[in-house]
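Give me structure tokens for this 551-residue protein.
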Amino acid sequence: MSKKVNLLANLKSDFASGLVVFLVALPLCLGIAMASGAPLFSGIISGIIGGVVVGYLSQSHISVSGPAAGLTAIILTAITDLGAFDVFLTAVFIAGLLQLALGFLKAGSISNYFPTNVIEGMLAGIGVIIILKQIPHAFGYDADFEGNQSFAQNDGINSFSALFEVFNHIQLGAVVITLASLVILISWDKFSFLKKLKLVPGALVAVIIGIILNELFIQTGSSLAISKEHLVSLPIPQSFEEFKAIIVTPNFAGITNPQVWIVGLTIAIVASIETLLCIEASDRMDAQKRYTDTNIELKAQGIGNIVSSLLGGLPMTSVVVRSSANNNAGAKSKMSAIIHGVLLLLSVLAIPAILNKIPLATLATILILVGYKLAKPATFIHFWEKGKYQFVPFIATLVAVVATDLLKGVLLGIIISVIFILRGNLKRAYSFKKEQYVDGDIIHIDLAQEVSFLNKAAIKLTLSEIPENSNVIINAKDTVYISHDILDLIKEFKATRAVDENIKVKLKGFKKAYELENTPELTNHVTFEHYYDVAKRAMVKKEKFNEVYQN
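Here you go.
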């Protein structure tokens, strides 16, 4: 049973971090909805449900859920193919049910097999993406939507070429606000007298100063004034009827459409994998090193997507950017995620006009610092010092995440890690005790605990290079399992080449029965215990049993 957590125990720090996440999440929810071809409020609804519902049900203390950039292409295509947003919501409802089922089937345990260096590479890659994507916004160039993580942008350029395009669209007002925000954010962490104001996060102060500066520019008629298209753009319902129209419900008539089920399955799989990756990353970021039950997380995400679909929201996942901002802001428990959801709800109901005065340049500055903490140089140095088997999967994951997407990047990192593991196992299948070949030398080949068919090529090469007139001792005393392929290879070497080239072969730890008869019953395993069981079943006395072993 999980230990009951007092959500109010760290309310002071959780409220401050929830406020920061709210400021980060607001433009991301809107931007992802816009990129998905969905109503803008569907992104806000997803963020609210991700914060309040999933935040409450989840066991993760750091992660934050909401609409994810990784799903935008799937959502855009699905809405187009299905022909209506309400039919698409039915697919989201199905996706939630499937995720709920995956949780009960304990599919969350797959996250235990994500290598640490790959997860760290994913985080660093997300950090690089955030920095690349937010630099243009910091200079007042907002052609790309907030929350976009793809390398190739909708405006025909990519993340790198967009940096050069910035020089043609610099807004001095945005630069001034960016510099002011940067000074505030860095100072808030540096000076002790400011650190005491924990309830007032630096991000909120930066946002307030950004709004005040831009209002001064507007009131004085300055050329530094930032225009509406470079501010947060939250839809404002003018009447109760307009507000009611925001809530779209699923059209369950589409439940019989096979395409709806295919979309639902696709969303369930992609959203679940992204969630598991983010949960693993969030647990690594957690200063208290708490672990999340990933099966409960899948259930929470499933319920969240069901509720979101019923209220007209986008599908959601646990997301790295908001989770990183939450951790950096000092979150202690999942209460911060819940608070961010509540703030999203209250803000769209009560103060949308004020929120629409927030400059995107200020939010870009907040995110750039989040990105830096994810991809700081110390992380690169750490994995470089660990050696190539740790560094190569780390850097390959990072590059692939930036150049393609999160899932492809992680897949590449895992494939490289597996290749390195297999290569390492090949080398560790045996130890070869000899510095140079000289006729007549005694050559020791000590087999490892497990020797499988994967080791056949390496052992075969070693046996082929043993010179004539040598004495070879092949030792399997410590071996727990050895495959038939390896046993046959050794037997063939002893019976043919060793005889032809006067190579004396001594086997230690192998069964005599294998050497003489190679009976299937006695070659399945080379452990003493296994052969003893076989002998007992054959009603062989213990004395006879000991005789068949070669000492």
